[in-house]
Amino acid sequence: MQFSYANPTQIFFGQGQISSITQPLPNDAKVLVIYGGGSIKRNGVYDQVTKTLADYEWYEFSGVEPNPTKETLDKAVAIVKEKSIDFILAVGGGSVIDGSKYVAAASHYDGDGWDILTGQYQVSSAVSLGAILTLPATGSESNMGAVITKAETHTKLAFLSPFVQPKFAVLDPDVMKTLPEKQLLNGIVDAWVHVCEQYLTSQHGAMVQDGYAETLLKTLKSLGDSFDQRDNDQWRANLMWSANQALNGLIGSGVPQDWATHMIGHEMTALWGVDHARSLAIVQPSLLRHQIEAKRAKLEQMGINVFGLQHSTDLAEKTIDAIEQFYASMNVDTQFSDYESTKAQAVDAVVTQLSEHGMTKLGEHQQIGLEESRQILEQAIA
Ligand code: NZQ
Ligand code: ZN
């Protein structure tokens, strides 16, 4: 264990907290509110934001799509530059918050913002950013990551920078009331896989990280199991907080991390528009089976501590089955069949994307090369 850790995002958690943003938001800030396709206009969040910003000079940019594209976001970059915006308020799910991070960084750069994703430009400053979360899933509201798509080439890439970490995030569980069932399930699955990516690796003996990861997994499992009680304040609050804690940097500090499921899943989203969380449920069981020897000890630990299974020689296998059953219990598919080509072409398409994007050494031991990804995809694609 060797790490440096800070999470500088101030969290305002609870009902009615949107109005609290006037505390961290400087009085003289020139604000650009960025949001998505309009859900915030239908659930009262937009009205609350308008009321809260009454004494500020502010502008708005809407239309950030799920899996946000640089093509759309560059239009917001132009507004930031033209109006000399000095604070961005992202109001939405992971896509809006990620997109706002790109806008914040690209606005302080004269070249093509896509250079940030390819690594040609290293972010060294950004417009300040705050977030009002409307969909608990990604953890983007209090981390430094963002995933952006270039629609032109079907490329989905991520970048990390402390300069785009939100200064504050509002987590008001009431905003979840209008979320479609499908998005609530996506939230559970995405947060679940975030914990797995940082926990299901090799045994390292970091007891706090493992223990907290298991608490989060047990929480998410019980939220999935009690999905019929989702119209309940406590259920919503627990999902919102666990999804946040799953990817705010804490459980991943000083331990090996995997992220191969995410990298392969991103390619399926870029190719076929599969929802982010759905892509993870498709890849993960097959990836775990492929990597079972490297992950056996942690799978056994998860089987006992999360699923309450008994010791047995096939405990790791049973744990993967339990994960798969958990997805099935929520009607989340664990195989992909929604492609138009042959299966061989579908597998090839993903492998080609991985190769083009340099995803040739994935996993905590960098042992998932293109051939291994191909074998994983053979099982994940129906
Ligand atoms: O656009 P609007 O109209 O707001 O509708 C959205 C969108 O259609 C809707 N929605 C959001 N809040 C709502 C609501 N509908 C009703 N009521 C509400 N309160 O939900 C739809 C999906 O939203 P989106 O933001 O795309 O979902 P999510 O939060 O799952 O974000 C997914 C994106 O985040 C990236 C993914 O790759 C994907 O692009 N990720 C970001 C990460 C990060 N920054 O750390 C990590 C993740 O692993 C992930 O890769
Ligand atoms: Zn994710």
From TrEMBL:
The keyword Oxidoreductase applies. Signal peptide: none annotated. Residues 8-173 form the Alcohol dehydrogenase iron-type/glycerol dehydrogenase GldA domain. Keywords: Oxidoreductase. The keyword rRNA-binding does not apply. Residues 187-378 form the Fe-containing alcohol dehydrogenase-like C-terminal domain. This is Aldehyde reductase. It comes from Vibrio variabilis.
